[in-house]
Structure formats: C-alpha cells, structure tokens
Amino acid sequence: MVSRHESMPVGVVIRRTPGVTRWAKYAWKGVSALPGAPDEVWRELRSDGEVVDIHVGTRPLELWRSEAEAYLAALSSEVPSIFAVLRKVPGAPADRPFDLLLVTASPYEAQDYTEGGDEIVEQIPMPDAVRAWIGAFVEAHYEEETFVKRRRDKRAERHEDGRGDPRIQQPGDVYRSPGALRRRME
C-alpha cells in the first residue's frame, strides 16, 4: 500500500555575506539543501574570507497526498526548488538572527508565509535525490482533475426586461419598464 504521507529530514545551508548598507551587518541567502542531514544548528560548513556557508538547521520535509499538485508545480518550474522558511528571533545576535521554521516542497505553502512579513522564505534548488523522491511521490498520488463545464442557470437565460437581475427583487429599479412593473403586480 502506498503511504499518504512521507517525510525526510532536510538540512538548510544559508550563506552569510557582509551587508551592503550600514543598517544591515550581514546579507543572508539560502544556497543548498542537505537531504538526510543531522539535526545540527548553526554549524559553519565553509568559510571564504567574510563569506560563510552555515548549516542553519534540519527540519522534516513532509509530503502529503493532498498536496501532490503543488509538488508537481515545484518539479515543473524552471529550477525545481524547495523552500526554507526562516523566522527572525527578537534579540538574537547579528550572526545568528533566524530560526529555521519549516522546509517545504509546496510553492503554495511557501507563498502563504510571504504574506505575513514576519518570515523570510528562501527558494533553494532541489537536490537530485530529493527531486527523485518527490517525483516518485507525485507519480503515485497525483490525479489530474477533469474540467467540468458548469451548466447555465435556466432562470438567468430568460428574457430580461430593463436592467438588473430579474431573480433579485428591485422595487426601486428605475430602469425597469412599466410593462415589467404591471406584470409583477398581476
């Protein structure tokens, strides 16, 4: 039996570079994902002068059958990506200002986090192993919905005298003809 839910731990690597303004000491960018990474927080992986790659944390990348369409959209994009949601920690030091809140393969879920403005959503290229795993999940669970054209309401098709919707009572409608008013009174 095929599982409706699957999960894989995925580590997120962000790159810290010097800020370009006096208001931001550092600039941050999600650069890679590490499938099966251990649960470590803020481990420096590589340093090149002032540019530092940091494993900020590991979270489970969960796939749900009901979201298969969203995962297909992620796989079909020009650069297949997963999304890391980072939340600023009030009072945190400047070199560790975020907590890794979520890792998702759904661009729709990631978009929901961009609307509040409290979180930072980083788009990270999907590693090949994760792409194959998500592709197999989508193939097992995605069912394309067939388009069903809605039939018109027969009441809306009947002759309309004047303006306005005849299904809605509009006694003060100045655009109705006197003939329509007489028929209504009878």
Q: What is the structure about, briefly put?
A:
This protein has 186 residues and is of the alpha+beta class.
Give the key terms.
single chain; 186 residues; alpha+beta; 4-stranded antiparallel β-sheet; 3-stranded antiparallel β-sheet; 5 helices; 23% helix; elongated
Seen as an oligomer or otherwise, the chain set is single chain
Number of helices: 5
Strand order of the largest sheet: 2-1-4-3
Mean pLDDT over all positions: 85
Strand content: 35-45%
Low-confidence stretches: none
Termini separation: 66 Å
Q: How many β strands by DSSP?
A: 7
Characterization of this structure:
The protein is of the alpha+beta class and 186 residues long. 23% of the residues lie in helices and 38% in strands. It contains 5 helices and 7 strands, in the order ββββαββαβααα. The protein has a 4-stranded antiparallel sheet with strand order 2-1-4-3. Strands 6-5-7 form a 3-stranded antiparallel sheet, with helices on one face. The longest helix has 14 residues, at 128-141. The mean pLDDT is 85.
Helices and strands, with pairings:
Elements: E1 5-21, E2 24-35, E3 43-48, E4 51-64, H1 68-76, E5 81-88, E6 98-104, H2 107-114, E7 119-125, H3 128-141, H4 154-157, H5 178-185
Antiparallel strand pairs: 1-2, 1-4, 3-4, 5-6, 5-7
Helix pairs in contact: 1-3
